[in-house]
UniProtKB/TrEMBL annotation:
CDD domains on file: ABC_MJ0796_LolCDE_FtsE (cd03255)
Keywords recorded for this protein, A-Z: ATP-binding, Nucleotide-binding, Transport
GO CC annotations on file: plasma membrane
UniProt protein name: ABC transporter ATP-binding protein
Pfam family membership, one: ABC_tran
Length: 229
């Protein structure tokens, strides 16, 4: 597949089954640099599977995924994991912070894994924590902060490597609406200022309202929606 010029990440005719269960049945996708796309749809429709395929975490059975002009299927495992480490950031429903590390160490972790010295990594981590308004929690461990604060720490961690795409799977699913909106505001604001694209899986309309465009997944097939307003 050759996506139109200016496309950062595109997928065509993705199929994926788990045994007899068809998770993706010909799904497509595209996103431009800096764009925020909401992936919506009922439970079990294939949203997370689509996100995992796009992020190179799960290989589809067939179909094509092109990131920045390169087919993911044509890359080696090492190349794909390097891509995930350097170009992609991830936020999940439950922050998945490392409980033994402090918040600043958690945010600095992706940089440390990329070989950056501790001081430098933690300085960059603190700068992102400031933008997400959680720098005062730097020395606390994830178990000592609230759900909303933890998700903001997770967003800082996703952004610290200055990725070009952030994959967020129900990032506010475990939060009350006030905290959820604040996390979405800060996530989209920070992503836009860094010109990072966001693939945002949600089934909440108020969360999707933060996106530029919506894709609806139903029974493993996707449809691009024109925004009503
Ligand atoms: N690792 C797996 N093994 C077996 N079946 C799976 C696996 N992952 C997903 N499925 C199945 O594939 C289908 C799509 O699942 P997926 O997790 O993509 O849905 P979803 O839209 O993200 O749902 P939710 O909104 O509940 O998170 C479901 O029927 C699910 O049970
Ligand atoms: Mg899911």
């Amino acid at each position: 597949m050759t996506p139109p010029p200016g496309t950062l990440l595109a997928a065509e005719d993705l199929r994926k089954s788990y045994g007899p269960t068809v998770a993706l049945d010909g799904a497509g996708f595209s996103i431009h640099p800096g764009e925020v796309v909401a992936v919506m749809g009922p439970s079990g429709s294939g949203k997370s599977t689509l996100l995992h395929c796009l992020a190179g975490i799960v290989p589809p059975d067939s179909g094509s995924i092109v990131y920045d002009g390169r087919e993911l299927a044509g890359m080696s495992d090492t190349e794909r994991s390097a891509l995930r480490r350097s170009e992609f950031g991830f936020v999940f429903q439950f922050g998945q912070l490392v409980p033994e590390l402090t918040c600043v160490e958690n945010v600095a972790l992706p940089l440390r894994l990329n070989g950056r010295p501790r001081k430098e990594a933690e300085r960059a981590a603190l700068a992102w924590m400031q933008r997400l308004e959680v720098d005062d929690l730097a020395a606390k461990r994830p178990g000592e902060v609230s759900g909303g604060q933890g998700q903001r720490v997770a967003v800082a961690r996703a952004l610290v490597t200055e990725p070009r795409v952030i994959f967020a799977d129900e990032p506010t699913g475990a939060l009350d609406s006030l905290n959820g909106e604040r996390v979405m505001e800060l996530l989209t604001e920070a992503a836009r200022s860094a010109n990072a694209a966001v693939v945002l899986v949600t089934h909440e309309a108020r969360v999707a309202a933060y996106s530029d465009r919506e894709i609806v997944v139903r029974d493993g097939r996707s449809r691009d929606m024109e925004r009503a307003i």
